[in-house]
Amino acid sequence: MERLKIAVQISGRGSNLQALIDACAEPRYPAEIALVISNIAGAQGLERATKASIQTRVIEHRDYYSRRAFDSEMTREITAAGAELICLAGFMRMLSDEFVDHWRDRLINIHPSLLPAFKGLDVQAAAIEAGVRFSGCTVHFVRREMDTGPIINQSAVPIHDDDTADTLAARILVQEHRIYPHAVRLIAEGRVTIEGERVMIDGAEAPAEALINPTPV
Ligand code: GAR
Q: How many angstroms is it from 71 CA to the middle of ligand 1?
């Protein structure tokens, strides 16, 4: 089986990277991680990669005179590793338009809200503050505008009355670890196409039931 080579870009903890590492450890999973790049030296995710014998690179933005130069170095490394898809996994740095355009439709991100609601940072607190009854997470192709682009999959979780940003983030994170490996699988299996700015997934089924919060009695 030919496996899709992916590069994962991180800045920190790397729990989504770990979910991808674990998925790739399955013999029948159709992707493999060729390279992990961190823009932060000492990021916890780097240890996870090393433990799994995955090649790592630290590319620190402050070593580069411009965002473009920093991004070009990442593209060089990713290309050299033979990666065909980039997964941003808690990569907390804006990417240049050149980078995003170069990797168009080959660059995906996970974000801890139901996009297009709650873009940016501290989105779990923002969702609680807004009083929405559900939040969740989204895997999407990356476009120039932050947290935009064709949506591949989403998971919705309920918000509870006593939630804090941390308890909600933890509930969402469990779902992130499920949907990110699934999105990569769908792409690697060649089942994902982008029509306009909408993603179509060959053979995918939507849930039959609506979710309602609070549950009607
Ligand atoms: C995750 O919750 C991810 O969705 C979020 O950062 C966290 C990284 O955790 N990403 C963003 O907010 C990007 N806009 P991890 O390092 O444990 O995967």
A: 20
Whose CA is closest to atom 5 on ligand 1?
A: 90
Candidate list 61, 102, 111, 177, residue with the active-site label: 111
What distance in angstroms lies between residue 164's CA and the mean position of ligand 1's atoms? 17
Same domain for 138 and 199, yes or no, is yes
Name the stretches of the chain with pLDDT < 50: none
Over residues 162-172, the pLDDT tens digits come to 999 999 999 99
Residue 35 and residue 93: Cα distance in Å, rounded?
Answer: 18
Locate 77 and state its tokens: 């490394």
pLDDT at 1: 81
Counting runs of H as helices and runs of E as strands, what totals does the chain give? 6, 9
What CATH number is associated with residue 11?
3.40.50.170
Write the residue with the smallest CA distance to atom 3 of ligand 1: 90
How does DSSP classify residue 163?
Answer: -
Protein residue with least CA distance to atom 14, ligand 1: 111
Phi first, then psi: what are they for 157, rounded to 5°? -125, 150
Query: pTM score, two decimals?
Result: 0.98
Question: What's the CA-to-centroid distance between 52 and ligand 1, angstroms?
Answer: 20
Do 89 and 175 lie in a common domain? no
